[in-house]
Amino acid sequence: MTTATVQFLTHEGELTPHPDHEVELSPDSLRKLYHDMALSRRLDAEAVTLQRQGELGLWPSSLGQEAAQIGAGHALGAADYVFPSYRDHGIALCRGVDPLEVLRMFRGVSNGGWDPAENNFHLYTLVIGSQVLHATGYAMGLAKDGAPGAVLVCFGDGATSQGDVSEAFNFAAVYHAPVVFFCQNNQWAISEANERQTRVPLHQRADGFGFPGIRVDGNDVLACLAVTRWALERARDGEGPTLIEAFTYRMGAHTTSDDPLRYRDAEEVEYWKRRDPLARVRTLLEHQGWADGAYFDTVAAQCEQRAVDLRTRLRATPDPRPGDLFAHVYAGAHALVEEERAQFAAYQASFADARDGGK
Predict the structure, then answer these.
(1) Per-residue pLDDT at 192
(2) Which residue of 10, 23, 128, 183 is most buried, as measured by CB atoms within 10 A?
(3) Residues noted as catalytic
């Protein structure tokens, strides 16, 4: 496979054609892409702030990866199913998942927070790479049932070092599963750079398993949209899996518990700031005459209102009762769980006894 990168929109905001892929542009569609990218960025920034204020236990920022996620999210069909990692907040927005449900999980007041079947969007996966196997199995099931739709599974460059991912590639290839492997290569697996993860471009790994691999400019929302749409159509048509490497950059920390200043330099970050995914779409909109300052001000105001609403609803979220921890371990009653529930209740009560002087 070639290492050429599919790109429609340069970092200067210039539109360029591609010989192998197409993207349909209209003022409304491009404005919608910009709006969703801006909303994803604003809600992500709000979540970072909320974590710093003690409202969330942790937050994995998606800053810089908005084009990859919104492009892929807009490529999905209604019958398609998504297996996300833990950083795919933009795709969650595209699938109609309430951002509050995502934040509730990182607040520690839910066990995932949403019904996967409601939006064809599975729960976030914190175990690195495991969702890639889950997605492949689900796609194999779709094929056996003759069901419509395909599967999109998201993971990062670090996950490609997990055995689960290689096993999933092999199963998908052998069984011709209708799955699209969407790797957001943000170049840092926490503090490990790409060169410590692989000696070849990640998309070339598909060659060894017998299916197509392709690299896209992950900061170009149009390229991510066009190539993901093409790969999903291949999958739905029975042509098997595709590996997409969206070459992007994680502008923020790995999570709010990480300090990226310890392992990467300022020059690298500045280089990628000049390739900002939102800035290039804004430039294109302005050059085409499809948006003006008033439009961008309106979008900013809408995003700010959504952030305020999210903050308000999160702070109003009640904490679960400690005993609820035992409520959904099994579908029915279980003697061991009931014993553990009683022990935990006695432990909790002991604190009240101590405060009351043992009365």
Answers:
(1) 87
(2) 183
(3) 250, 254, 263
Q: Whole-prediction pTM value? A: 0.92
Tokens of 82: 């998504």
Instruction: Provide DSSP, 182-222.
Output: EEEE-SEETTEEGGGT-SS-GGGHHHHHTS-EEEEETT-HH
Q: What does the DSSP assignment read for 14-57? A: -B---SS------HHHHHHHHHHHHHHHHHHHHHHHHHHTTS-S
Which residues contact residue 277 at a Cβ distance below 8 angstroms, ignoring those fewer than 6 apart?
A: 37, 64, 65, 66, 67, 68, 219, 220, 221, 248
Q: Which residues of 134-147 are buried (b: 16+ CB within 10 A; e: fewer)?
A: bbbbbbbebbeeee
Q: What is the pLDDT of residue 355?
A: 53
Give residue 325's pLDDT.
84
- Give the pair of three-digit tokens for residue 344: 């935990």
Q: Tokens for 117?
A: 């079947």
What is the DSSP annotation of 230-293? Answer: HHHHHHHTT---EEEEEE----S-SSTT--GGGTS-HHHHHHHHTT-HHHHHHHHHHHHTS--H
pLDDT of residue 107: 95
Cα gap 202→199, rounded to integer Å: 9
> Residue 198 has what pLDDT?
85
Neighbours of 212 (CB within 10 A): 17
Q: What pLDDT score was predicted for residue 105? A: 94
- Contacts with 120 (C-beta within 8 Å, 6 or more apart), sequence order: 78, 79, 80, 81, 82, 95, 149
Burial 38-54 (b: 16+ CB within 10 A, else e): bbbbbbbebbbebbeee
Distance between CA 6 and CA 264 in Å, rounded? 27
Residue with tokens 């070092």: 161
How high is the mean pLDDT of the chain? 93
Q: Which residues of the chain fall short of a pLDDT of 70?
A: 1-3, 352-359
Residue type, 73: G
